[in-house]
Amino acid sequence: MALTGSLAEIEPADLMQLIAMGRKSGVLSVDDGGRRNVFYFRDGQVVHAVSSDDQPPVEVVYQFVGQSTGRFRFEGRVPECEDTIKQSTESLVLEGMRRLDHERRIEQHLPDEHCRVVVGGDRRAGGEMTLNSDQARVLLLVDGERTIGEIVRESQLSRLSALEALGELLDEGIVQALPAAERPRTPPPEPRRVQTPPRPGRERQLITTQILQRVIDHLEGM
């Protein structure tokens, strides 16, 4: 017999701990509009998880802990899947709650998620900044059209990592957020430039998308 319900009635952490305490084996599926998560339990332990947004199994669990809407269905049966998760259900829930608290603290210092983000602003620290792979990946998505929420979702990073990287770029003044109703001005077309040898003191040119992508590939290959 299947167990069904709404996350409005029971929090994800409590639901997972209930399955763990009962040492149940089965499949928990959760639908929230266009997003679907599936968790595989063996003797109360989460052994695998998949999501419609292709997050790594452990990240699916962490993000589920913070979910507040959706319908769930648990069917008791022996799951047929590869065991990709080794942590206990309890440790996964605790880490998910820790990350959720951290995300909320970061969000308190970020502009509204509907604000668009543009490259440029007043550098606060001055000097050069070395981008890590997360910051470079987020910066690639800053085009003046995407909002903070869209950048976080499209970054292919965990929500926590994307928020941290975006917050760091905002703090450094490399990017800035526009008020939700304000759109960036369309810059005039640049005149054609004749290639000349670099001169001492010449301003550092903006990082191009191609260079950023090479930075990401290099950092992730280390």
Q: How would the blueprint of this fold be written?
A:
Blueprint: E1 3-6, H1 12-21, E2 26-32, E3 35-42, E4 45-51, H2 57-65, E5 71-76, H3 89-108, E6 117-119, H4 133-140, H5 148-154, H6 159-172, E7 175-177, H7 209-220
Antiparallel strand pairs: 1-5, 2-3, 2-5, 3-4, 6-7
Helix pairs in contact: 1-3, 2-3, 3-6, 4-6, 4-7, 5-6
| Structural class assignment | alpha+beta
Largest sheet report: 5 strands, antiparallel
Give, in order, the helices and strands.
EHEEEHEHEHHHEH
Strand line-up in the sheet with most strands: 1-5-2-3-4
How many β strands by DSSP?
Answer: 7
Describe the structure.
The protein has 222 residues and is α+β, with helices and mostly antiparallel strands. The protein folds into 2 domains: 3-106, no CATH class; 109-184 and 205-220, Orthogonal Bundle (Arc Repressor Mutant, subunit A), CATH 1.10.10. It is built from 7 helices and 7 strands; from the N terminus they run βαβββαβαβαααβα. A hairpin with a 2-residue loop joins β2 (26-32) and β3 (35-42). The longest helix has 20 residues, at 89-108. The radius of gyration is 22 Å and the shape is elongated. Residues 192-208 have low confidence and may be disordered.
